[in-house]
Specification:
binds iron/sulfur cluster; 3 domains; Nucleotidyltransferase, domain 5; alpha/beta; about 525 residues; five-stranded mixed sheet; globular; Lambda Exonuclease, Chain A; 17 helices
Length: about 525
C-alpha cells in the first residue's frame, strides 16, 4: 500500500551511510515530498518528530483501511511470499529477503524491498514474468467512472510507481511492466471477488523514471544544508492534499489578507502580485463573485453586511422544522450489503425538532456488530415525520446520503425521498445575504457560527467532521477499544452531532433578528 520504508534511528537519518551526497537514503515518501516541495522534504527529513507529522485520528483511520486493502490485494493475487509482514522489519532485512526470494525462484512477492542510488523503496506486489517482473502498486482509492477523472487519477499516482520502478532498475531488477491497482467501483458487498481493477502504466512511467536520478541527487545536495530552503507558498501547498506544514508556512499572513477572498484563489494571487495584498486594498470590481464583493464591503467598512433579501429567503423555513445533520463513515473495503468501495455510509444523525408538540432532539448512532442502516432509516423517518421543512447546512451532502440510503433500501425510498424533497439549505441563505468580517472568507458552519452566535465547538472533545468520522470508525471497528472507551467515545460523538443541529437552530434565530 505504498508504505514508507521504516528507517532505523529516525530522525537522525543523515547519519546513515548510502554513498549519496547527503549521506542518507531517501524512501519513496521522501522522494515524492522532494518532487513536490524541497522545503517540505527538508522539514520531514530534519524534523521527523515535528508535531505536524504526528498522524491524527483521520490519518490512523486511512492507514487502517489501507492495511485492509493491502491484505485483500495479496489475497486476490494468490500465494506469494510476504517479505515485510509488519512495518517493524528493517529495510536492510527486507532487501536481503527479497534477493534471497528472487534467487530461490519465487514467482510472487509481496512488499519486496530495494535500495539503490541513495533511495529505498518497497513495492506492493511483484510477479515474475519470464526473466523480468511485473510491478503493481495498490491504491486504496476508487477507479473513477469518467475518462477525464481517470487521467487525473493516474497522473496523481504515476510518480509513486515510477520511483519504485527506478530504484528496482538501479538495483538491477528488470521491470517488464508497471501497473496501478485501484478499487473497482462496480464491486458490491458481499461479492468482493472483483474488488480490484488494474491499469498498465508502463509507457507512462518511462519519462518520469528518466528525470528521477538528477532530481534525487538535487534533493540529497539540498538536505546537506543546515537551513531549510526558501520556497514560496503556492499550489503545491494544497495539491494533491494539504501539506502538513501549511500552517507553518501560511500563518504569517495577517487577518484579511487577500488570500481570504471568497472562492477566488487564482484572482487572489494575481491581486497580491499587483500589490493588493489586503482585502482592504480592493474595490468591489476586484472581487469575482457576489459574496466576495460583499466581503470587500464588510472588511473595508469594518461592519457586518445584511442584504434586504434575507427576510424573503427565510420564508422558505416553515414550521414545524426538523434540523438535520448526518455523520458518515467511509470504508475502502465494503462491510455492508450493497456498499461499494469507499462508499460514504450514513451511520449517525441528529434531528432538532422545533414547532412540534414535543420539541425533542432525536439522535441515532450506530453500534458495532451489525449493519446500522435499517435502524437508522426507521428512526430518521420517524424523527422527520410531520416537519414542514427539513433544514440542513449544505444540502448536497445530506441529499446525496439520503439518495444512497434509498437506493440500498428501496422499500423505504418513498419515505426517504419525501424527507429529501422537504430539505431547505441554510448555507446559501447565509452566503447570499450576510457577511461578517469574522467569516474570513468561509461560510462553513465552524466559521459562521462564532461570528454570529455565541456558540462554538471549543468545549467539545470532538470538534470537527474529520475527527467525528475517525471516531465513528474507531467506535465501530477498533477491536482494541474497551467498553469504557467505547462509552466515552459514544458520548463525545453524540455531543458533536447534537451541536451541529443546535448550531442551526441558533443560527436561524439569529438570522431572524438580523432581518
Ligand atoms: S506549505 Fe507549501 S511551501 Fe510550505 S513546506 Fe508545504 S508545500 Fe512547501
Amino acid at each position: 500500500m505504498g508504505e514508507g520504508v521504516p528507517m532505523d534511528g529516525e530522525p537522525a537519518r543523515a547519519a546513515q551511510e548510502s554513498g549519496a551526497p547527503s549521506g542518507a537514503t531517501l524512501d519513496k515518501r521522501d522522494v515524492l515530498s522532494g518532487l513536490r516541495c524541497h522545503q517540505k522534504l527538508w522539514f520531514e527529513f530534519h524534523e521527523a518528530y515535528a508535531p505536524e507529522l504526528v498522524p491524527d485520528a483521520e490519518a490512523e483511520m486511512r492507514f487502517a483501511e489501507g492495511h485492509l486493502v493491502g491484505a485483500r490485494a495479496r489475497l486476490a493475487m494468490g500465494d506469494g511470499v510476504h517479505l515485510a509482514p509488519g512495518r517493524e522489519v528493517a529495510q536492510i532485512e527486507v532487501v536481503k529477503r527479497t534477493a534471497e526470494a528472487m534467487e530461490r525462484g519465487e514467482r510472487l512477492l509481496f512488499e519486496p524491498g530495494f535500495t539503490a542510488a541513495g533511495a529505498s523503496v518497497r513495492a506492493d506486489i511483484m510477479a515474475r514474468d519470464g526473466d523480468a517482473w511485473v510491478m503493481t502498486e495498490v491504491k486504496s482509492s476508487k477507479w473513477p467512472e469518467k475518462d477525464r477523472d481517470r487521467e487525473k487519477k493516474v497522473a496523481l499516482h504515476l510518480t509513486d510507481i515510477a520511483v519504485q520502478r527506478w530504484v528496482a532498475g538501479e538495483a538491477k531488477v528488470p521491470i517488464a511492466r508497471a501497473n496501478l491497482m485501484y478499487l473497482n467501483p462496480e464491486c458490491r458487498h458481499p461479492d468482493l471477488s472483483n474488488l480490484f481493477t488494474s491499469v498498465d502504466v508502463t509507457a507512462r512511467t518511462a519519462p518520469v523514471v528518466l528525470a528521477l536520478p538528477a532530481a534525487v541527487r538535487t534533493m540529497h545536495a539540498m538536505l546537506r544544508d543546515a537551513e531549510p530552503p526558501k520556497v514560496s507558498v503556492g499550489d503545491q501547498c494544497t495539491d494533491p492534499d494539504e501539506c502538513p506544514f501549511h500552517a507553518r508556512c501560511h500563518d504569517t499572513l495577517p487577518d484579511h489578507h487577500v488570500s481570504e477572498l471568497y472562492y477566488a484563489k487564482k484572482q487572489a494571487r494575481t491581486l497580491a502580485a499587483e500589490g493588493k495584498t489586503m482585502i482592504s486594498d480592493l474595490s468591489a470590481s476586484d472581487a469575482p463573485n457576489a459574496p466576495a464583493k460583499r466581503q470587500v464591503r464588510a472588511v473595508t467598512t469594518g461592519t457586518r453586511i445584511v442584504e434586504p433579501g434575507l427576510a424573503n429567503a427565510l420564508t422558505a423555513i416553515a414550521r414545524p422544522i426538523a434540523y438535520l445533520d448526518f455523520e458518515t463513515v467511509q470504508l475502502a473495503v465494503p462491510r455492508w450489503p450493497g456498499c461499494g468501495p469507499q462508499a460514504m455510509v450514513t451511520v449517525q444523525f441528529s434531528v432538532h425538532r422545533e414547532g412540534f408538540a414535543d420539541d425533542t432532539t432525536r439522535q441515532y448512532l450506530a453500534r458495532r456488530g451489525s449493519d446500522p442502516r435499517p435502524q437508522l432509516i426507521t428512526e430518521l423517518i420517524d424523527a422527520c415525520a410531520g416537519a414542514a421543512c427539513v433544514v440542513v447546512y449544505y444540502e448536497a451532502f445530506e441529499k446525496a446520503r439520503i439518495r444512497e440510503l434509498a437506493d440500498w433500501f428501496p422499500e423505504h425510498a418513498s419515505a426517504l425521498m419525501d424527507i429529501s424533497d422537504r430539505i431547505v439549505d441554510l448555507l446559501p441563505i447565509v452566503r447570499d445575504h450576510v457577511y461578517d468580517p469574522e467569516f474570513h472568507g468561509s461560510f462553513s458552519l465552524k466559521k459562521v457560527l462564532p461570528a454570529l452566535v455565541d456558540l462554538d465547538y471549543s468545549d467539545l472533545v470532538i470538534q470537527d467532521g474529520g475527527a467525528a468520522t475517525a471516531g465513528i470508525y474507531r467506535l465501530l471497528f477498533d477491536q482494541g477499544l474497551d467498553a469504557d472507551a467505547q462509552a466515552a467515545l459514544r458520548t463525545d460523538l453524540l455531543a458533536y452531532c447534537h451541536r451541529d443541529t443546535e448550531a442551526m437552530v441558533k443560527l436561524v434565530a439569529k438570522l431572524k433578528e438580523l432581518m
